[in-house]
Amino acid sequence: MRPRPLTRLGLAAAGCALVSACGSTVPADVRTPTASVAAIPAAKHAASAELLDWPEFGLDPQRSDVSEDATAITDANVAHLRRLTVSLPGTVDSSPIYLHGVSIAGAVRDAIVVTTSYGKTIAIDAGSGQRLWTFTPAGIGAWAGSSQITTASPIADPDRLFVYAASPNGLIHKLSLADGSEDATGAWPVSITRDPTHEKLAAALNINGPDIIAATGGYFGDAPPYQGHVVLIDRSSGRLRAVFNTLCAHRHQLQLPSTCKASDSAILSRGGAVVEPGGGRILIDTGNGPWNGTTNFGDSVLELAFPSLTLRQSFTPTNQEQLSTSDTDLGSSAPVLLGEDRVVLAGKDGILRLLALSRLDGQPPSPARTRAHPLGGELQRLSIPGGGQLFTAPAVWTVPGATGSRRSVRTTMFVADESGTAAYVLRSGRLYRAWENATPGTSPVMAGGLLYVYDPAAGGIYVYRPSSPRPIAKLAGEGGHWNSPIVVDGHVVEPEGNANDHKLTGRLEIFSAG
Predict the structure, then answer these.
(1) Mean pLDDT by 10 residues, the chain (514 residues)
(2) What residues contact residue 434 under an 8 Å CB cut-off, 6+ apart?
(3) What is the DSSP string of 416-461?
(4) Is residue 139 within 8 Å of 128, Cβ to Cβ?
């Protein structure tokens, strides 16, 4: 929870652009096998379907951040997009969402929705940049300008009538998309912490069936007491349906942090809870904190049954204690679903750990093992780009073969961090790095056959063809922090700024085709 500052490293030199580590600081026993860029399939440049909505962080509940649907932006026009800079009443240190053709203020509009670090949620017309409505949480004067912030991205209800957003006082709000008014029926708005001054709402919201999934972490500096926990909120009533505490896990309700002897174990990643295909399970991971394999799960990956939020299996590295004491959070980036029974995670130690989803610790889940979860069990360890720290969410592109058989599936993962950007391919259950450069980035997005990576240090968005480390264009902009772009319906949308600067103003860049 105490990330070091991002530094600008510039474009890659030819000597490290493909497969070298570019200054890796990972342990000597970590080996990163390589593959040719030819292992990355050719991207489609035209699609019969159009990508019109981007309803949540990562595009879907699995946080893939990838769509092959057409966006109206191509390699031919991406360098010539119309730029519009929008001033905002706050910093959006997260990702926007986008809904095409929704009714707002009596008219049909294409709307961008963002949440600022102090909890203002704003709807913006994507074409004109006009602010359509602003929701301001009650009591904002008590925390505006302070270190009590949120970096949680909002999410749209599948009915496209409501959006859900977080505020730093620990509440999740249900807002009318038509005018930004708050739904106060049932139990809305919903408090998901009993101490919002210590438990931060950092991770993006998610939806699985009837429920909103939200999580808590801690603030910059790890001031105790707090416990990372995940909650389910019934979208209709606002009722809190289930709670899983990563510390004092035997308690199944919101707890006052001071009543649990253990502290920390934040759910701090951009992606937060990741929903497995089918919706029957979710994955979370945690940051620094104690571990005992029964009730405390710091620096661990946890698979929870849905909707009970009971622990099914877990992974904890053998050096968990060292990670915790050295402030090297395992959970600074969320688990990544690769398919083919593989999940990967990386944190602040510069190591990608590949796991079997069916047996996270190397053994299949069983009721006999629910009382004591062992350490270790990863299948492979590789370095992330430059061996730096990972606070971003990788993008996963899966291309089925012509036959549609499982063996013909081709999976590419794009990772960006404070030291560079890289592409990895999954082959026969193992990861191989296909290319790498030294351009830092936040969470990559692949849409319409192009890869977009925002540089938080120098500002601007680099645009790549998926099979090359050399950008084909750069969209101008200012620097930021954890913000990442969306690419949808003829627009590239990127918030800018750092929530830790505690500013009450911010900017949003909109790049549009046509």
Answers:
(1) 36 31 56 95 80 98 97 96 98 98 96 98 98 98 98 98 98 98 98 98 98 96 95 98 98 98 98 98 98 96 97 96 96 97 96 97 75 87 92 96 68 97 97 97 97 97 98 98 98 98 97 93
(2) 19, 34, 35, 36, 37, 39, 40, 412, 422, 423, 424, 425, 467
(3) E-SS-EEEEEEETTEEEEEEEES---SS-EEETTEEEEE-TTT-SE
(4) no
Residue type, 8: R
Locus of tokens 């999580």: 215
Q: Verify cis geometry, omega within 30 degrees of 0, for the bond prior to 400.
A: no
Four-CA torsion 468, 471, 477, 480, nearest 10 degrees: 30
Residues 6 or more apart whose CB falls under 8 angstroms from that of 511 comprise 81, 82, 83, 84, 461, 475, 491, 492, 493, 494
Q: What is the pTM of this model?
A: 0.93
336 in Cβ contact with 327 (< 8 Å): no
Q: Give me 292's structure tokens.
A: 């005992």
β-pairing, 445-447 vs 66-67, is parallel
Lookup: tokens for 460 = 């601007």
Each as own residue / partner, the long-range contacts of residues 159-162 (CB below 8 Å, 24 or more positions apart, any chain) are 160/99, 160/102
The identity of residue 180, as a single letter, is G
Contacts by 232-238 with C-beta closer than 8 Å and gap 24+?
232/306, 232/307, 232/309, 233/172, 233/190, 233/192, 234/210, 235/157, 235/164, 235/174, 235/207, 235/210, 235/211, 236/186, 236/210, 237/186, 237/187, 238/174, 238/185, 238/186, 238/187, 238/188, 238/189, 238/190
Closest CA to 393 of 465, 331, 437: 331
Q: Where does residue 443 rank: exposed (0-12), middle (13-18), buried (19+ CB within 10 A)?
A: buried
Measured distance CA(303)–CA(339) in Å, rounded: 15
